[in-house]
Design a protein that fits this description.
The chain is α+β, with helices and mostly antiparallel strands. About 50% of the residues lie in helices and about 15% in strands. The chain has 13 helices and 12 strands.
């Protein structure tokens, strides 16, 4: 019988003790696997968050925010410069406007309260009321917000369409998406027509969002709004998508250098950093868990083998006395430790697979996350819906990104677990091997 076979058989000479060691190792190795799965899954989510969250850079003409402010619209040349900026993967351009009572046959669905009356202090003829007393001013008529966009899906998602279909933002046709409140107020349905800017428009779709303001507006193709407002090529907002959150600061710096004082540039970088930071803290916690569980496994093997070596000092002495070398005896005990560890590892891998999902969910749900609660309304502002949709969904998206981490056992994680099992056996056998090498047959036999 060679030393390898003898070592495997010796591993189970004491079923009760071997069973206890296997159970303890299984728990330790199972935790190693669960923590490795959690860390791998969270790192994958971090990569996903970096490409999906906080990757928007908003460019507005300097001094302009939607329907407020002054300044000049962005030009075709400036838009081309934004699009050509390194790491910008796509852009959405828009132009906002407002329809008064003489511009359309539609009636606004908004009811102006004191705040609304304060913002719209013009009477129906467009003259400013001269009295400082709000009550003495003519009752203002709410305007209808119009957003011309090159990408309607950036303002309204397809699942927010209650009827009809999306318009083509690249067209110049007289088609429109109508907010549900505005449609109800004017008895509009898909296929019906209304007038605006002296033109007849066809309702192609009706949408409903979570905000009254959005539900009271119109979305048209960008080129249509530019043509009907005599603003050929003009854009009041550019939303640039960056390929990764890591590159947002670089893009902002490059755009600031390129556009200078002609544009106001904002980003969601802080929101992305908050989300990624929370995930990184969980991944770090999982890494510490891997180290702790692996160390516990190595200590279990170490203490078990020390006890076994001490119990078998006489046996070791006899083997050495009849010609056994230190190398062969050490190999036998390392094989014994490896056999116990492998059996515990097999059981532990099954245990780890079963608990990795709940473990990952627990780490994520118990992590203290901090998400931004205030956003710049950069995209769209007063007259554009992109900013409002962004405002309503960004903080929710950040928390969803964190909560939606799914435990996934990848081949690389399984290989790391197997390496951990072998490392536990080797490290746990190191000290016992040293003790075996120090056993002197004459002293052991004399003491017996």
């Amino acid at each position: 019988m060679n030393v390898i076979t003898r070592g495997v058989r010796n591993a189970f000479r004491s079923p009760l003790r071997s069973g206890a060691i296997v159970v303890m190792l299984a728990i330790s190795i199972g935790l190693v696997l669960a923590m490795l799965v959690a860390r791998s899954s969270i790192n994958q989510k971090i990569d996903s968050v970096k490409t999906q969250t906080g990757t928007t850079v908003t460019v507005n003409p300097a001094g302009v925010m939607g329907g407020f402010g002054g300044g000049n619209p962005l030009t075709t040349t400036q838009i081309a410069q934004i699009k050509a900026t390194a790491h910008v993967s796509a852009i959405t351009t828009s132009l906002t406007d407002q329809l008064g009572t003489t511009d359309t046959n539609l009636v606004s669905s908004l009811e102006l309260g004191s705040f609304g009356r304060r913002q719209q202090r013009f009477d129906n003829q467009g003259s400013m009321a001269t009295s400082g007393n709000m009550a003495a001013r003519p009752a203002p008529t709410p305007h209808i917000s119009v957003t011309g966009t090159s990408n309607p899906s950036a303002s309204i998602s397809s699942d927010q369409l209650t009827s009809g279909s999306m318009i083509d933002g690249a067209s110049s046709g007289n088609v429109a998406l109508v907010g549900s409140d505005l449609a109800t107020k004017n008895d509009l349905t898909v296929g019906k027509a209304f007038t605006a800017y002296g033109q007849t428009f066809t309702v192609q779709g009706i949408y409903k969002t979570a905000t009254t303001f959005q539900n009271s507006g119109l979305i048209l193709p960008l080129a249509t709004v530019q043509a009907l407002t005599d603003q050929a090529g003009a854009v009041s907002n550019v939303s640039a998508t960056v390929d990764s959150a890591d590159n947002v600061s670089t893009v902002v710096a490059n755009l600031t250098k390129t556009l200078g004082s002609a544009a106001d540039i904002t980003s969601q970088q802080q929101q992305a950093e908050n989300s990624v930071t929370s995930l990184k803290s969980i991944a770090q916690l999982a890494f510490y868990g891997v180290i702790g569980a692996a160390t516990a496994g190595a200590v279990i093997v170490l203490l078990s083998m020390i006890v076994i070596v001490r119990e078998r000092r006489r046996e070791i002495g006899i083997i050495k006395a009849i010609g056994g070398t230190n190398r062969s005896v050490i190999t036998q005990f390392i094989t014994e430790a490896l056999a116990l560890t492998v059996v515990g590892g097999i059981v532990g891998l099954v245990f780890g697979v079963l608990v990795s999902g709940p473990m990952t969910s627990s780490l994520v749900s118990n992590s203290q996350t901090q998400t931004a609660t205030t956003q710049r309304m950069g995209r769209g502002g007063m007259g554009g819906f992109g900013g409002f949709r962004q405002l309503n969904t960004l903080s929710a998206a950040a928390s969803t990104n964190i909560r939606s981490v799914t435990a996934t056992l990848t081949p690389s994680t399984l290989i790391m677990s197997i390496i951990s099992i072998l490392a536990i056996a080797i490290i746990g056998s190191a000290v016992p091997a040293w003790l075996i090498a120090r056993v002197r047959p004459a002293e052991v036999l004399r003491s017996e």
